[in-house]
Fold Beta-galactosidase.
Amino acid sequence: MNLERSHTFSFSPDGEHFLLDGLPFQIRSGEMHPARIPREYWRHRIRMARAMGMNCIALYIMWNYHETHRGVFDFRSGNRDIEAFIRLCQAEQMWVLLRPGPYVCAEWDLGGLPSWLLRDPDIQLRTDSATDPRYMAAVARYIDELVPRIKPLMSEHGGPILMIQIENEFGSYASNPAYLEELRQLWLAGGITGPFYTEDGLPQLERNRTTVTGGAIALSNGDAAQIATVRREFPSVPAMAGEVYPGWLTHWGEAGFAGVDYDLSSTLATFMQARLSFNLYVIHGGTSFGFFAGANLDASGNYQPDITSYDYCAPISEQGMATPKYIKYRDLIASYLPEPLPAIPDVIAMLDCAGAEALMPALYASIWDNLPAALPREHGVEPQSFERYGQAFGFVLYRKSLPEHARGVLDISAVHDYATVFLGERYAGGVSRAQLPQKYAQSLHMMHRAPLALPSARHNHGSNPDGQVALEILVEAMGRVNFGPAIVDRKGLLEPVTMKHVDGSLALLEEWDIYLLPMDETFIANLNEDCTNPRKPGLFYKASVLLTEVGDTWLDMSNWTKGIVWVNGHNLGRYWNIGPQRRLYCPAPWLVQGNNEVLVFDLHQIEAKPIQLADRSC
């Protein structure tokens, strides 16, 4: 099939088939996300999908990855060049299913919606302009930015895009036909006439009827029986299994990696026998680098942040390797195809870690000696969320003075998401929104959504001559909830902070100084090598690695507690010793021949520990 000329992708009049140039066409799609893959590896991952028997790539566009600040778009730097990725798919003879949101879920922070939307305290997300014009005005600006990029890439114009998805799994959120239609109209106004499709679980689709006019239907966790059900209930349009799960997502603190035992062989065999269309979610997961990993709430409302790895137990591993699942599914799919599959691409080179000595970072700096100027104080105002301060990710320090004789119980139980508390120069414990293993909680005096008893500050070395002592609350924002009705998930101290004194009186704590610590590229590049108090947690450690050649590697953070790692300025993501993830993936393109800098920020440790380089994820 020549992908360089224009093609017509449509639906048969009876809704039975997808049609490519008028002929029935089976979509065999594998999902991967450019935002989770170093740009240098895009072509390799696309070729891996083709060699497993796919003829199509499905991809999300994460809105908040491209409009990090209101009205400022980036579709060019690094792995944000969506057009380049789609053209690579075309060059590798792969069609594309485009899933641009505006909401995508994807175990991505806020489901891909920009956190700056939450600066308005009464904003309503994922709704039509009659309900909240502020939200839809932002969506319209986003789609207006996409349209000239996407239009030339549609199959009718000689590009590889077959269909565009309208929103994502909206039936799991609400029922609002006006909203879905308004989204469709935005694309039509830009001259993109489809074809369109929607994605939902079958029960949600049946309950909320979340389709768009003339749009195909894709099913989350879909199978042949569900496709047949949809064909009976919606006979005018075709249906496909839009998300077929070869693995599953994993949260911090879970016993192991999810999805290890999944086997799709029988499901895939049925699809191939009946020539039903499907999309494997995901064929390759990659990595939620930086601060973009999302979170969920369980049935009881407990917060569950996602690990940094998005390996997903997918057929193509986080590092791009063909797993045993890959080989099994490739052989199965190939048995139904008339032509042999391309050879499996060569394995990406690994760093030779055999016999390598562990890195031993040295103390480099303290967050306390790198505080920016405090925001202008608003007298009597309570602490606010990150979003109200205009910050998306990282940390915020909330500081106020207390009388040095103050003792009592501090209530910051509504913290989002993880707070370490200091009285003067001493660590006093902390509060976590996520439930913690008992051993971890006890060793660090961490409470789970409960008040924290403060020690006496009378002899605290942080006291001032005026008899005051600093109360400091360093709050880490972890992933925003990315699925369901609780996605309005602001970060920071979300309720008034109170202190119950030993005499039983309750005090509302006000007059806070606020320090924004985004831990972004600029902040890290401008760190001062300074540490006044090496015994106060919140420290940076640095190591140098001299390499004569580069390759993919993992940094084993088993000896560390909770924090973030940068390599040559690239944020590899979070580590946390509650597991199950212990190692962070570092792709070779982020390393150089010669000296490489590894920077670690740990919330708890005041002593450096070794970091072993490894040649596999676990």
DSSP finds eleven helices and 33 strands in the chain. The two ends are 41 Å apart (CA to CA).
